[in-house]
Amino acid sequence: KVFAVDGSVLEGGGQILRNSLAYSAILGYPVQIERIRAKRKTPGLAAQHLESFKLVRDVCKASFIGDKVGSTEVTFTPKRLAEGSFSADPKTAGAITLMVQASLFPLAFAGGTSEVDLKGGTDVDFSPPLDFLQRVLVPTVGRMGVEVSLDCDARGFFPKGGGHLGLWVTGLQGPLKPIDIGERGSVTRIAAVCYATPADGWLNEEDTMRTMEEFEPWLMSELADKGGKAPKCTVECNPEPSADGRTFMAAFEIVVETSTGGMFHGSSGAMEWKRNHGLYDIWYAAAEKALKPLKPQLASGAALDEHLVDQLILPASLAKGTSRILGAKELTLHAQTAIHIAEKMVPGVSFTVTNPKPNVTLIECTGIGRAPGAPPMQPPKGEEEVVVAKFPPGSLSEVAPEERWVADLRNDLGLFSAKFGVESKLEMGRDRIFVTGPGISKDDGWKTEMSRLLEYYELKGVQWR
């Protein structure tokens, strides 16, 4: 039986592809992904997505129908996971870090030690930078039992790409361990890295000394907990190789660690560096850019970075035991999507999403204890059912989509979907909300909660169909 996944729901992009692909390879049942990136400006598979599919295909000796750029429907039928030497190269600036995300856990469940040669972009927009992968994701999943090492031969940037990364993954000896990052704790370490890609491999000593001397007290004042014990703070300035030796970029990357094992990451992204301009000035501008979203995260009460939250849903769903992940008040769309796909594809997984305090969201996931080498599973049973909440004409269709409360409603519907394991879709032009899920017509618990939500937004006169 082939399990169908709608590639347009919630985040509606690459994460659905990567997580569905990884689950198919690890759990051993075929998946058909339909309506791939249907709502995006350019629907279908991009080169980076296609390379991710091909890489995981090779790891599990799968058959793959729809293997071309632009495909809006693919069927992936896995066989046995096996370690080996693999490679992926989209021949664009496609994000290497996203190809790693797609393949990391299939490689971990493959046994032995696998090596992957990856080419593309290491630091490109709309994807995690290499620093996040190296200093945040890898050590965090290491706590769950995944051994990973990386070696970057060259940084790759948009539009040329050309980055080159070596990845080594040691196979698991048993199920993944659960992870508990359910408390924020206190800031214990601040570690900043400023890098640039000079042609000769040398950085101006005056710029680097000034940066290290001035950034440390500045970062302490911006990021350390007020009134608490002073954390350790380090600032490094490093030259990095670019693909062609003629691409001059600079960036500021920072990791903040807490006493409970939480990690937060800030990044300026790669910024063009004009060689007649001092590096201190561009690193300072880069640092200000990185700190702007980082500071509110640290102040939110969340225990870990919002981008790390969604990356831990997949391993938590497969781990043996209960993981606790404390995110911010509003889970990102990527996190909501990860929970949605896990509940659809992992038989026996259990999620509880609560708000222990008004400004935070606690995700508790009891995983299935999937062991390496375990026999293939059958896909989840149960036909999808649809219930429609229909409103009087004009209730939604006459509302401007950019109004703030509409965005709030969409976010709350995402949280509702994650909590009840359903999909809630707002169709403003037709004055209705679709709720889709297995067996929902026999359980009114979700409907009571939905009614409260609609009452809060003063949406009256609903008819259930």
TrEMBL record:
Stretches assigned to the RNA 3'-terminal phosphate cyclase domain: 10-347
- Which reaction equations make up its catalytic activity? a 3'-end 3'-phospho-ribonucleotide-RNA + ATP = a 3'-end 2',3'-cyclophospho-ribonucleotide-RNA + AMP + diphosphate
What EC number(s) would the UniProt record show?
6.5.1.4
Check the record and name the PROSITE patterns matching this protein: RTC
Q: Where is the signal peptide?
A: none
GO cellular component terms, alphabetically, are: nucleus
State the source organism's domain of life: Eukaryota
- Example GO molecular function: RNA-3'-phosphate cyclase activity
State any GO BP term from the record.
Answer: RNA processing
Specify the protein name.
RNA 3'-terminal-phosphate cyclase (ATP)
Q: Which organism is it from?
A: Zooxanthella nutricula
Q: Recall the taxonomic lineage recorded for the source organism.
A: Eukaryota, Sar, Alveolata, Dinophyceae, Peridiniales
